[in-house]
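Example 626.
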Amino acid sequence: MEVNDAPSQGSPNTTSQQQFAVLDMFIPGFSLVSSLAQAYLGIDLNLYIPMLMVLVSTSFAWSYISSMLYGLIESHLMSSVRIRTDDEIFNMIMAWVATQNFSRKSRRFIANTNLNSRAWSMWRFFNDEDEDEDEDEEQDWRKKETSKNKKQLRYTPSYGTHLFFFRHRPLLFERCENREQMGSLMISEKEEIIISCFGRSADLIKELLHEAREQHMAKDEQKTLIYRGGSDGQGGDLTWKRCMARSTRPFSTVILNEKVKQELVDDVADYLAPKTRKWYANRGIPYRRGYLLHGPPGTGKSSLSLALAGYFRMKIYILSLSSPMATEDNVSQLFASLPMRCVVLLEDIDSAGLTHTREGESRSKDDAASPPAPAAENKAVPHTGRLSLSGLLNILDGVASQEGRVLIMTTNHIEKLDKALIRPGRVDMTVEFGRADPGMTASIFRAMYTPFEGEETPSTSGPNSPAPSPAKKGTKALKDTALAEKQKLRDDEARNRATERIVDLSHQFAAKIPSGEFSPAEIQGLLLRHKRSPLAAIDAVDSWITSTRKDKMEREAREAEEKEKARKKAEREKRRKAKQKAKKKAKGEDVSSSGSGSDLEIEAQEQAGGKDTRSKATPDSGYGTS
Ligand SMILES: Nc1ncnc2c1ncn2[C@@H]1O[C@H](COP(=O)(O)OP(=O)(O)OP(=O)(O)O)[C@@H](O)[C@H]1O
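Predicted structure in complex with adenosine-5'-triphosphate:
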């Protein structure tokens, strides 16, 4: 008789082994857990397998059906907007989101010191957000942080979908990776946000976008937005980058002849008036206006331009033409991307390449005395990428400059500029800035020390005398309004007295500064060293004049030495070329290679022996041997 102990096919044991094998595939380690449960707890998990399978398949089915349903709802019953990091609206939305409750209370959040997009073109180099403080009680500790000069922390919801309410209606805020632009961007730029609302109308989302923009603009209202031409840091083209939002500089703080200032303001106001554009168009005159501000460094040219932009609430786009980036292509590209109404400030238009002639740099002393080449000649100069005068003229005359922009050019050397660049039509008004005369000096002094409301009045009665009671001290503590009023009156009186005293002192100070010798920036520098003590500033004037004169003389001597070196180098080069030419003529063949040896000799001798050696090497050069 044959006994077969092996379990027959289809026996319960075999079935359970097969089930385990299948379950192990989906839930690794299930058979082990099951045998442990059987051995130690006496629970047979086999009995629960069908139930478990039902649960697992139901959950799979639910997740599939729900995502399909959500997809259907999303595409047919919802509206949404995608916002990427490479547009300024990203910054606006993130700033708005950070102020919303759902963001503040979110348990999954991202902490930032700067909410702005990291996309290079959107980046703000100066975190002007720090200036704007939330009026929220729960932010007390934040204020403590800012008081310690720490950057304020902002919280925004982290990756994923978050529900929030806007105008009592539910919306979804989704923050995710930007899958379409993964390759080209940095990690922090690979992000996008999607805001969705229920319903087929996107009006609610548009309202939200408008609100975010309004909030953002309101923050910038009292500011002058400054953009600078810069590269993307990846060797790419030049573009305008927002570099900061400065509190608008009041026009009155720029010290300049009042009549000239008023003329300038009236002229710009007239140009920007809506009817003027039509007037220009009707007469076929290009709608543009150019201003040239010239004068020594530190006399207020840039300050006036900024104040003007702030006064007319325009953005200012600053480009320094002395930057190596300022090539013809780059500058024309920058002009093409300017907005309709703005101030364009072109700094240093006397920079190399834009003066009388591009060859100017290599011209010798003798040549320098010859009259400057006309602008037309410049057109013949081969295009080397650097901005040429003709290139700049083309850009200024181009369509990109005729869209209601206020073009301001600044220079320290008006005498170096080509007439073509500053002819009427390109420059419609010229404003000269000079070094400070006594009137300006006194104004700078008053601007520095006149106390503003709520400010501590500067000490004006000797170094050891106590400061008059400051306006802010104790005012907060006065609960009684009558007392507070009295205190305010006393403060106002103290301020008026201090202001009168400052006016007297300003005349004393101005009398000590020689007229037309120092720039307003230099004088401001002196005053800033004694910003709380006008008397100390007056005492320091004499020694400051002596040391500043000494510094200036040393600097001038250094510059003269460098100039002389450059002149000698140019002369040597000229002689070398002349000699090569003479040799070529004499031999009637190309002697450039043999010539270079002797040139090197000459150069080495010159460097070693100075003038004497030079005269020996080139006896016909005209230098004496003594
Ligand atoms: N006329 C002025 N009125 C008020 N402040 C002035 C004046 N001139 C110069 N300053 C002060 O000096 C500093 C430098 O001025 P600013 O940059 O405007 O000079 P600039 O003429 O543009 O110089 P640069 O030619 O070197 O660019 C600023 O801080 C500004 O406040």
